[in-house]
Amino acid sequence: MRKISHMQGREAFLERFLSEMRFRQAIKYIKYGQVVADLGCGFHGNFLRRVEGKIKLGIGYDVSVSNSSLPKNITLKKIDLNKNIVIKKNYFDLVIALAVLEHIDNPEHFLKQIKLMLKKGGKVIITTPHKKGKNILEFISFKLGLVSRQEIMDHKNYFDETSLKNVFKKAGLIKIKIDTFELGLNLITSAKKN
Q1: Cα distance between residue 131 and residue 129, in whole Å
Q2: Tens digit of each residue's pLDDT (9 = 90 or more) over 93-147
Q3: In CATH, what number does 15-192 get?
Q4: Angle formed by the axes of helices 161-170 and 107-117, to 10°?
Q5: How far apart are CA 83 and CA 80, in angstroms?
Q6: 85 in helix, strand or coil?
Q7: Where are the domains of the chain?
Q8: Chain segment 136-162, per-residue pLDDT in tens
Q9: How far apart are CA 43 and CA 63, in angstroms?
């Protein structure tokens, strides 16, 4: 089991750049006044900090967090995302999980938990590496040291568009839309709770 969150310690050269690319994809889905959950928020909750001026409330969850110097509308909570994570049912307008699904033991269960957290009509945004990028990620991590070895070693799942859509469907989410970014090596998926 992981004991530290992303960005808790010193990170490899490309980590901040890759995080920024994910943030840019997800930020498009933020609407003013939303209540947002960030699953796998990282140690400092950087994405929620970035959008704090737009959202009503943001709650970040990760295996380890720092609550120092947070804006008033942001809270970070320590939680193991591989366990039951439903803290508040039917509460969030938007749940995001950036570069998290690949670390989850049971992605279908994880998405079902997210569905419970969402308000009716709420949206989930997930980014995850495309399975065609697995060998590239391992090379730039294990051989070149440009991305976190710990993060890549912790990957349990890789998806393509079909396998990812199937997991979302099995979780009971609707209006599933999948796109690629980072030269097709990452997937971003949006879906809704009916």
Answers
A1: 6
A2: 999 999 999 999 999 999 999 999 999 999 999 999 999 999 999 999 999 989 8
A3: 3.40.50.150
A4: 50
A5: 6
A6: coil
A7: 15-192
A8: 999 999 999 898 888 899 999 999 999
A9: 8
Amino acid at 58: G
Nearest to 122 by CA among 148, 153, 162, 91: 91
Residue with tokens 């003013």: 32
Q: How far is CA 111 from CA 67, 83, 107, 124, in A?
A: 26, 12, 6, 9
The answer to pTM > 0.90 is yes
Question: Sheet containing 57-62: which strands, arranged edge to edge?
Answer: 74-78, 57-62, 35-39, 92-98, 118-129, 186-192, 174-181
Instruction: List own/partner pairs for 71-80 with CB under 8 A and 24 or more apart.
Output: 74/45, 74/48, 74/49, 76/41, 76/45, 76/48, 80/1
The first and second tokens of residue 111, run together, are: 């998405």
| DSSP-derived 3-state class of residue 175 | strand
Which of 5, 145, 133, 119 lies closest to 62, judged by CA? 5
Please, are residues 101 and 110 in contact by the beta-carbon 8 Å criterion? yes
